[in-house]
Amino acid sequence: MLDYDFPLWRPPSEGENLIIQATLGCRYNQCAFCSMYKSKAYRARPLEEVFADMDTAAAAWPEARRVFLADGDAYCLPTETLAALCDRLAAVFPDLQRVTAYATPFDILAKSPDDIALLKSKRLGQVYLGIESGSDDLLKRIAKGSAKQMEAALTRARETGLKVSATVILGLGGKAHWQDHMDATAALVNRAPPVYLSTLQLGLESSVAPRFFERFGEEFQWQDDQGILLELRRLIERLDPPSPVIFRSNHVSNRLALAGNLPRDRDKLLAQIDLALEGEVSLRPKWIRGL
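Request: output the structure for the sequence above.
Response:
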């Protein structure tokens, strides 16, 4: 239908939705663990090119209701550009319900409350944010900013009604730092809860592994399945957000798929993890797991 510029990535929940590439690559592109856009130089595509893609998509799929704006952090585009993209989507897709995009904490903080309100009025009211960890030590090692920046972005989103679907990376601290990783992450989420929270599991492609290990600054020891389950348990056990958080660990990289609302379903989720730790629940086979 569309001539995409590959590689093309999107969140799992956008798998059945229309993807429009408003940008190519990722403007930040410094995360030590990430290989997603290393083969692309970032650029914002000209509006006329993006509009042409929308027209092509509308001719093939006029009933599309949800659109994900790719690539890496399309929310970094100027507010007037995003507004124009949303207006065009609404014009060519009469049943349009929702527009989403990846964002960094810097992208969210660069938008004023008025900017966010304008984009929400045009159906761009949800972004996907990788917080990865609440530990300043680990965030520094992976070149992902600071917990203070993450908290400020989550707070800005919460105060303005911008929905955030946030991700945390299990295994990011290895065997040496997993407890601090989970404790600090739970504390961050409890201070500034997103609407959605999901876990991924660390996996490194060969192209980025050397830089990750170099930045880690010490020998990195991978967590095994038991260690990952203990991380997940510690995270869930400590999550007590002041407002409900919809939790998922259904990404294909995860060992154990969970779903529930926190804090309401904490005990149920902990019971499922305990069964997995005892070998009573099967984990996702290794050959299926991936990024």
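The beta strands are 18-21, 23-24, 43-44, 66-70, 98-103, 124-132, 163-170, 196-201, 245-248, 259-262.
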